[in-house]
Amino acid sequence: MSDQNARLYARALFEAVISDWQRQLRSIAAQLGDISMASTEEQARRIDAVLPADAPATLRNFLLTLVKQDDLRLLPEIVDALGAVAGLGDLMKVAEIQSALPLSDEQRKEIEKQLADTYGSNLDIRYTVDPSILGGLIIRVGDQIIDTSVRTHLAALHRSMVGV
Question: Is 0.70 topped by the overall pTM?
Fold first, then answer.
C-alpha cells in the first residue's frame, strides 16, 4: 500500500510541476508576442524582462536555447506538446478509483457519470481494490484526491481522541 501511495504522491507532484511550467511558459509566450524578427540579443533581453524573478535557471536556459536555435517562435507549440510528452495531455486525464471491495457495474456507472460531470468525459478510469481502506472510496484525478475511506475517517477520529 505504501508503494502505491508513494506513486500517487509522486504523480501529483509531477503533474503540479509540469502544470506550473506550462502556466509560466504560456504567460511568457503571451508577453513576448511575435519577436521572431528581432535580433538574438533583443530576444534574450525581452526574455529577461518578462521572466519572473523567481523563475528557475533551467527555464531561462531553455528559452535562451530556443533563441540560439532560432526556434523561439515554436514556444506556444512546445507548451501544448509538453503535457502530451509528459503523459498529461489535455486530451485524457487518468482517474484512479480505489475501493475496499469490487464495485458493481451500477456503482461504476454512477461514479463515472459524476466524474464526467466534474472533470469532463475524457477520462481514463482505472479501478483497484484495496481492502485496507475498509470501505468508502479514494478517488484521484490529476492532482486532486478525494478520500472518503473508512480508514481515513477512523485515523482522524483516533487523532482527535488522543489529542494528536
Answer: no
